[in-house]
Structure prediction request, 291 residues.
Amino acid sequence: MSAAAAIAATMPELSTWIGRSRTDEEEITLSAVRRIAATFDGDPEAVALGDALPPHWFGLFFADIPRQSAIGPDGHARAGEFLPPIPLPRRMGAGRRVRTPGALRVGDTATRRTEVAAITPKSGRTGEMVLLTMRRTVEARGEVVAVEEFDALYREAVRPGASSATNPPVPAPTEAAWADIVPIDPVQVFRYGAITWNAHRIHYDADYARGTEGYPGVVQNGGLTMHLMADAALRRAPGPLKGFNARLARPMFVGDHMTLRGVVAEGGGTRVWAADKAGFLAAEMTLEFGA
Prediction:
């Protein structure tokens, strides 16, 4: 059965997953926050109970923790455990839309409600795909601190010996108000994966990334790219972060470098983009700040 036929056959069942939800609780512990601070080159000893965290740090908590027996061959939880049983084997982050009316504090007991928001079949140059959108609402101290819609893209398997198909390369803009050259450091990628409990093998298993998924090497974690883009923008921020939209365009690889550039966007926000080592657009983000 072709991928298109398999998707069409399963859509009636997949549609029943839309609206399913679960709620998880997380303690925002001092030790966890200190590990995060150190991973992003902050002083872990400067963190204390009660400190407000950068608003976008909510995404570093509430890791999915499937039992070992529930993990699939790619390192993700098997489809059907909580994620819908989409009949395509490859899963990767595609983008997110975030609003941050508040911030977590060290010592909080927080909750996150995760809901299957949409399941959308797509067909493109790289083959048949399904876009899964999850809506996440994080609350602490009786108030909403973050609302996120996260997109994950499911793709067909790579034929043996073939390379993973990618979007046509688009040169990234070079005119910007500022630019940072950032190494894609294998140690930071490992530490970020440990913090977020991300066991997707493309981020640490070079043989799997090449042989099974058709990449030239270990793949940079897209969540880490977006976090570094937000960090770069916040270093030049005119006010507190209120939200951001982000999209991933091309994979980057561990051992390479990326260039982050930014400009003031229409309406007073900031537009940031990431270029890979060849200068092609890999990710883009628009951030909104308060007064």
